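Quick one, probably user error.
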């Protein structure tokens, strides 16, 4: 199973995947920490650091980015 905890003050998502080996009765937890970026915040970071945003997609299928997009994929070049 998976447990997720989001800290809105730091915008950090803490994810733990819990695995159980049914044959050996062992349990293992794999942890992952990920910083979440709001769309306007990510755009500003690119621009502030000298990049020009060429395109922005909502998934790896190159669909348009919108409020329901599962991902933020940015194509950028040096400004």
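Nope, works fine. Designed sequence:
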């Amino acid at each position: 199973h998976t447990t997720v905890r989001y800290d809105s003050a730091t915008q950090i998502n803490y994810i733990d995947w819990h695995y159980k080996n049914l044959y050996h009765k062992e349990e293992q937890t794999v942890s992952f920490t990920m910083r979440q970026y709001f769309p306007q915040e990510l755009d500003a970071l690119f621009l502030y650091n000298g990049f020009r945003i060429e395109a922005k997609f909502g998934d790896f299928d190159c669909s348009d980015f919108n409020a329901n997009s599962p991902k933020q994929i940015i194509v950028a070049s040096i400004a």
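Residues 1-36 form one domain.
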